[in-house]
Automatic annotation (TrEMBL):
Protein name in UniProt: Tc1-like transposase DDE domain-containing protein
Tc1-like transposase DDE domain mapped to chain residues: 5-41
GO molecular function, one term: nucleic acid binding
Lineage: superkingdom: Bacteria
Length: 42
């Protein structure tokens, strides 16, 4: 269960950035956009 003051780390899916998500009482941190420069497999 999440409590006020918890931090959630999320990817950049557009549906995660809606108003309902932003109104929660937790901290939201979004991962940086994907870059192939940071992925040695690509």
């Amino acid at each position: 269960m999440l409590a006020a003051g918890d931090v959630i780390i999320m990817d950049n899916l557009g549906s995660y950035k809606g108003q309902a998500i932003r109104n929660c009482r937790t901290g939201l941190l979004f991962l940086p956009p994907y870059s192939p420069d940071f992925n040695p497999i690509d």
